[in-house]
Amino acid sequence: MKIVVLVKQVFDKDSNINVSGDGVLTNREDLTLSTNESDAYALEEALQIKEKNGGEVIVVSVGNDSVLTVIKDGLAKGADRGLHVKIDNEESLDALDLAKLIHASIKDENIDMVLSGLQSDDKGNGQTGILLAELMNLSHASLVMGTEIQDDNSIRVKRELEGGWFQWTDLSLPTSLTIQSGINKPRYSSLRGIMMMKKKPIDVKSAEDLGFTALQKSKVMKMYIPEKTKETVYIEGSVNEIVDQLMDKFANEIKIF
Amino acid sequence: MSILVFIQQENGKINRLSLEAITGAQQLGAKLNQPVTACVFDENSANELKSYKLDKIVCINDSQLVEYNPITFANVMEQIISNENSTLIIAGHTYEARDWIPRLSARLDLPFVSDCTGFKTDPNFVVIRSIYQGKISSDVSIENNNGFISFQSGSFRADEIQVGSCEVIQVSVDLSQSTDLVRPGEKFQEATGAVDLSRAKIIVSVGRGIGKEENLPIAEELAKSLNAEIGASRPVVDYGWLPHERQVGSSGQTVIPKMYLALGISGAVQHQVGMKGSDCIVAINKDPNAPIFEIADYGIVEDLFEIVPKLTEKLNAR
Ligand SMILES: Cc1cc2nc3c(=O)[nH]c(=O)nc-3n(C[C@H](O)[C@H](O)[C@H](O)COP(=O)(O)OP(=O)(O)OC[C@H]3O[C@@H](n4cnc5c(N)ncnc54)[C@H](O)[C@@H]3O)c2cc1C
Ligand SMILES: Nc1ncnc2c1ncn2[C@@H]1O[C@H](COP(=O)(O)O)[C@@H](O)[C@H]1O
Fold first, then answer.
1. Coil, strand or helix: which one is B159?
2. Which of A229, B7, B202, B221 has its CA 20 to 30 A from that of A141?
3. C-alpha distance from A171 to closest chain B C-alpha (Å)
4. With an 8 Å Cβ cutoff, are B105 and A96 in contact?
């Protein structure tokens, strides 16, 4: 199995993201970066499929040089090689642009499977893997919570539906799966893995080399802090004061005693 | 030019998000001065739509459309969009919609702006969507107002649908091109544990802010002193710190306690849909911009490790 895993670098979840009046992120430099949550599960699933069935895992990330960190992390965990699709303004790409760019970068590989996260923690489009399936004429399944290779031509996946329901689905290979968090237990990279990583190849393809132009058919015009709809009562003060006030609310307003 | 609203149904019952999407489509149609067509794959549902203010109802009755299949749905919708000359296609952001719309988006080379919460038309038409895990809102424009939009649960109210009367037009489509690339099988539920959070009076719910499994007792002690059940956000369950039966949210349980105490939970929409019906929501989170504060009745912007042990102590001394 030749498996491409799409891994995105995002701002850490605990980041305090600020925007200015005209809607640009203002504190970019203060924010820490990490691997998109569901992508870590997608990578682990790819590694497990490879370990069971043999093959190759290629980690692909689109962005500026900083995304090399997530590629190297994937290599240290056991992926075989990396592909850095280089573009400076990844943020301004809409889902369709991004999928086309990824398509251009991997179309010459003879891929059996594309694994991606079901949703990015920043843009949250929830589309990239499925758009890619259509562009590459692959089958697809979204919200995947389990995989079982059947034979050279098919795979069975467990899909998550709403409200605690699941569904088995058989797919023809090649396929594109968007992976839901919790499907497996992502591994940590070992010291040995980190040493091996240094010898693994990372290809670089720039958006220009790939002849890519963003069409931006959908475009973010403005960003802002959401308006609050509910009047939240904030309880403030020293820790003791807060706890006393809370006890009072419990007793007299929420009436749980 | 027309607006097409896709109606999802199961066994003849229209999905609530589709009803909300009709309200959205009607409001948008009025603003943009465009007719609104509804499209549905079931006769009973089509008849139910007759009493709404719509310009057209297109019904496709075909045994191949009874069970959801992304490839078939995309193939059918491709034909309907072309027949109806639809420029904006609207749907509720359901698990099905988020699965088939991207295929068609890529095929027709039209953008899909997913999981929106509303729109503005002044001065230009933009849709509103949350980014960065709900911390930031964005206004998004769509080239030539031509593309797909899905609306998040609760973006519009189903009880604000405008009534009217409209005829159903039966349409047949060509499904001979459909492949069997995707073969959906049986739907099932996993054996559930003994915990029924939906009846809990008080829930102390733990999010990723708890940091590590070893810190869980801090929350459990508080739950004990409040006689509360423990709940959790998805990551806490994904990490294996608490069993799935404790998960609150769209892929977990829906709860309506008298008090929901959220500890270190950011309040992502998938979590909110499972708990926003609580009588009272108290949130402790050190990030003042965490979206949980948009729905909390009481907010405490502090480190939970400072507050929770003290609170347990006071409760136990009572
Ligand atoms: C299809 C789909 C289905 C999903 N289903 C569900 C679901 O059913 N249930 C669910 O919960 N999620 C679900 N999710 C995931 C959801 O989008 C969020 O990722 C998740 O709810 C985040 O959990 P969290 O708030 O615990 O973590 P985070 O978003 O990481 O938030 C942690 C919070 O803790 C705060 N914090 C950190 N340290 C402290 C401290 N010491 N004191 C106080 N506060 C602190 C931080 O400020 C932050 O706000 C689903 C997602 C998708 C795409
Ligand atoms: N810049 C990127 N580089 C690599 N993979 C990406 C990138 N953006 C999105 N993806 C992949 O596509 C998935 C879904 O992203 P999105 O469609 O933005 O929600 C992510 O979880 C990643 O696996």
1. helix
2. B7
3. 5
4. yes
Convert the pLDDT of each residue in B51-105 to its tens digit: 999 999 999 999 999 999 999 999 999 999 999 999 999 999 999 999 999 999 9
* Separation of alpha carbons B29 and B233, rounded Å: 38
Q: What are phi and psi of A206, to 5 degrees?
A: -90, 155
Domains belonging to chain A, first-starting first, are: 2-206 (3.40.50.620)
Helical axes B97-108 vs A128-136, angle rounded to 10°: 50
Element (H, E) at B238: helix B234-238
The torsion defined by the Cα of B87, B92, B94 and B99, in degrees rounded to 10, comes to: 0
> Where exactly are the structural domains of chain B?
2-170, 197-317
What does the mean pLDDT of chain B come to? Answer: 96
Q: Which residue of B has its CA nearest to A240?
A: B310
Prediction ipTM score: 0.96
Q: Output the ligand 1 site: residues, CB below 6 A.
A: A 13-14, 118-119; B 133, 207-209, 233-235, 247-252, 264-266, 268, 270-271, 274, 284-287, 290, 303-305
CB neighbours (10 Å) of residue B144?
Answer: 11
Q: How many CA within 13 A on the CB side of residue A57?
A: 27
pTM of the model: 0.96
Task: Enumerate residue ranges in chain A where pLDDT < 70.
Answer: 21-22
**Of the partner residues A164, A218, A240, the one whose CB lies closest to the CB of residue B147:** A218
Domain B2-170: which CATH number of 3.40.50.261, 3.30.360.10, 3.90.1300.10, 3.40.50.620: 3.40.50.620
Across the interface, which of B114, B187, B289 has its CB nearest the CB of A127?
A: B114
Euclidean distance between CA atoms B207 and B316, whole angstroms: 23
CATH label, B197-317, candidates 2.60.40.1670, 3.40.50.300, 3.40.50.1220, 3.40.30.10: 3.40.50.1220
Specify the DSSP class assigned to residue A228: P
At residue A21, φ and ψ (nearest 5 deg) are -55, -40
Count CB neighbours of B211 within 10 A: 12
Convert B30-57 to b/e letters by CB count within 10 Å (16 or more is b).
Answer: eebebebbbbbbbeebbebbeebebebb
Cα atoms found within 13 Å of the Cα of residue B237, Cβ hemisphere only: 22
